[in-house]
């Protein structure tokens, strides 16, 4: 069998890690992690359909400290996935491909995800307190 000398594709050993790589990977991870949120949502709907006792147990779990931490993490995961998805759509349109703009879009996606998460949780607590 004859040996061919084709160039190898650069991989992680050649490219330096950057924000763009981390956000691309986090987009995939949060997409998979959002399945946890979907399972929690399904559990809530099933508990609601099952009866008051099952729903009360679900609410007890979700309003506990651990439940709130998990829900906060799921919210952050959804918002980061949303914001990095918008970033990918912008880049798919041919914009933001230069290094500086790409870096700014990356930081903007992280900032927006944090602001959206805190705004959603803060608004929820404000609205619940206003009742």
Automatic annotation (TrEMBL):
| This protein's UniProt keywords | Heme, Iron, Membrane, Metal-binding, Transmembrane, Transmembrane helix
Question: Quick check: keyword Membrane in the entry?
Answer: yes
In what way does this protein cross or attach to the membrane?
A: Multi-pass membrane protein
Membrane-crossing residue ranges in chain numbering? 35-59, 65-84, 105-128
Task: Supply one GO BP term.
Answer: tricarboxylic acid cycle
Record's keyword annotation contains Iron: yes
Textual note on the cofactor: The heme is bound between the two transmembrane subunits.
Pfam families linked? Sdh_cyt
Report the principal subcellular site. membrane
What domain of life does the UniProt record list for this protein's source?
Bacteria
Q: Where in the cell is it found?
A: Membrane
Binding of heme, residues: 81
Query: By its UniProt entry, which PROSITE patterns does this protein fall under?
Result: SDH_CYT_1, SDH_CYT_2
Q: Which PANTHER family match?
A: SUCCINATE DEHYDROGENASE CYTOCHROME B560 SUBUNIT, SUCCINATE DEHYDROGENASE CYTOCHROME B560 SUBUNIT, MITOCHONDRIAL
Question: Quaternary structure?
Answer: Part of an enzyme complex containing four subunits: a flavoprotein, an iron-sulfur protein, plus two membrane-anchoring proteins, SdhC and SdhD. The complex can form homotrimers.
Name recorded for this polypeptide: Succinate dehydrogenase cytochrome b556 subunit
């Amino acid at each position: 069998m004859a040996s061919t000398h084709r160039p190898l594709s650069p991989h992680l050993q050649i490219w330096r890690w950057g924000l763009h790589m981390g956000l691309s990977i986090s987009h995939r991870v949060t997409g998979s992690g959002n399945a946890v949120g979907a399972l929690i949502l399904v559990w809530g709907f099933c508990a609601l359909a099952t009866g008051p006792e099952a729903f009360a147990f679900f609410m007890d779990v979700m309003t506990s400290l651990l439940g709130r931490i998990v829900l906060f993490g799921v919210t952050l995961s959804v918002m980061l996935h949303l914001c990095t998805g918008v970033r990918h759509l912008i880049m798919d349109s041919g914009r933001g491909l230069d290094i500086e703009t790409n870096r700014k879009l990356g930081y903007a996606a992280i900032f927006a995800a944090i602001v959206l998460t805190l705004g959603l949780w803060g608004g929820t607590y404000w609205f619940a307190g206003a009742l």
